[in-house]
Design a protein that fits this description.
Function: Component of the PAM complex, a complex required for the translocation of transit peptide-containing proteins from the inner membrane into the mitochondrial matrix in an ATP-dependent manner.
Shape: globular
Structural class: mainly alpha
Number of strands: 0
GO molecular function: ATPase activator activity
Family: Belongs to the TIM14 family.
Membrane topology: Single-pass membrane protein
Subcellular location: Mitochondrion inner membrane
Strand content: under 5%
CATH class of the domain at 15-65: Mainly Alpha
CATH architecture of the domain at 15-65: Orthogonal Bundle
Radius of gyration: 12 Å
CATH topology of the domain at 15-65: Helix Hairpins
CATH superfamily of the domain at 15-65: DnaJ domain
Distance between the termini: 44 Å
């Protein structure tokens, strides 16, 4: 049976945590990241009764792994 991320989010997301949330490797190709994101969002989208907090974390994980957000970076 497949194991899923057991939860408990870090204060600031890391690439490792992002990969765990999406159920893929940190080094996964962008297409694999997007496919995993889509699959999880279909199951957890707020419009379909899912949690908006979880959806936010799933989106953050995708952004982290496709390079739109850097781990440990600051806006200043």
């Amino acid at each position: 049976m497949r194991q899923f991320y057991k939860g408990g989010f870090l204060p600031e997301m890391t690439r490792r945590e992002a990969a765990l949330i999406l159920g893929i490797r940190e080094s996964a190709a962008e297409a694999k990241v997007k496919e995993a994101h889509r699959r999880i969002m279909i199951a957890n989208h707020p419009d379909a009764g899912g949690s908006s907090y979880i959806a936010t974390k799933v989106n953050e994980a995708k952004d982290m792994l496709v390079g739109k957000k850097r781990s440990g970076s600051s806006m200043f």
